[in-house]
Design a protein that fits this description.
alpha+beta; 10 strands; disordered N terminus; two-stranded antiparallel sheet; about 30% strand; 8-stranded antiparallel beta barrel; 5 helices; Lipocalin
Length: about 220
């Protein structure tokens, strides 16, 4: 299978920003996706190209993947990261056969971003253009294990939560305070609310659990 060809999709800067900064003569930045939208054939690729949130997620994952390939200390090593990426692309494209293709695709990107950031220090660098944060660790009352949280700062936002042998991807919803994410799986509804280092987590069959962020490493 061929590697992603890294063709480009352009996004114009707002005219007001151009005028305010007197940079109208500067070329607009090139925003790269992992495939050429003009020649996309897979149903999921077409979905990504026409959905702004998924486009953002694809661009960010491409950035993380490229960084992980430069990290000789990544876990797994770069050659394995490359192989895993190909398997991931195949699995992502299978979302086309799911009842909710976009939900499946969001989950696929969130989980892969978590894997890349968890395995590579370089992928976790504080790039000003980054759209991901984490993994962050939260200790919650009522859980015997830490929750690892990786955030996608897209519009709307997404959080991937992983604990013990379980994981869930939640979508950001409007909240009067803090940042709230909700979602569901076959077991029922989930909710995660964060305000600084404090958080609340609720999973099916349990009440709200109070959580606190903990240092990692």
């Amino acid at each position: 299978m061929n590697q992603p060809n890294m063709k480009t999709v352009t996004r114009l800067l707002a005219a007001s920003v151009c005028a305010a900064t007197s940079t109208c003569a500067t070329a607009a930045p090139i925003i790269q996706t992992s495939f050429d939208c003009a020649t996309a054939r897979a149903s999921v690729e077409k979905l990504i190209c026409r959905d702004p949130q998924l486009t953002q997620m694809d661009i960010e994952l491409t950035r993380l993947y490229r960084l992980a390939l430069t990290d000789d200390h990544s876990v797994p090593r770069p050659d394995k990261v490359m192989i895993d990426q190909q398997f991931w692309i195949d699995a992502r494209n299978q979302c086309a056969s799911e009842p909710a293709p976009k939900t499946c695709t969001i989950r696929s990107y969130a989980e892969r971003a978590h894997q890349l950031r968890q395995g590579s220090v370089i992928a976790r660098t504080k790039d000003p253009d980054r759209l991901t944060e984490g993994p962050l660790a939260f200790r919650c009352t009522g859980l015997n294990t830490l929750i690892a949280a990786t955030f996608f700062n897209t519009q709307p936002g997404v959080v991937y939560l992983k604990w013990a042998n379980a994981s869930i991807t939640l979508n950001q919803v409007q909240s009067d305070s803090g940042t709230q994410y909700t979602g569901k799986d076959y077991q029922g509804n989930y909710r995660f609310w964060q305000d600084g280092n404090a958080a609340l987590f609720q999973k099916p069959g349990s009440g709200e659990m109070s959580c606190t962020a903990e240092p990692i490493g």
